[in-house]
What we know:
single chain, 62 residues, mainly alpha, two-stranded antiparallel sheet, 2 helices, 48% helix, Znf_C2H2_sf, C2H2-type domain-containing protein
Amino acid sequence: MVEVLVGTAESKRFECPYCERKSASPGGVRFHVKLAHPEKLDEFDSKHYAAMEELFIKHFPK
């Protein structure tokens, strides 16, 4: 599940699906998963990362 804490742009955070770690970007969550939950990286990429990226782009358009 992807969780985004809604608020100002500065307060939006993406949460790791395996613990309570939060990051300002999907890439930050992926980096955390790679280091803290390496056995879950493939699962994270296939189940969670794309949805996080979509939300990130929606809230922070170029």
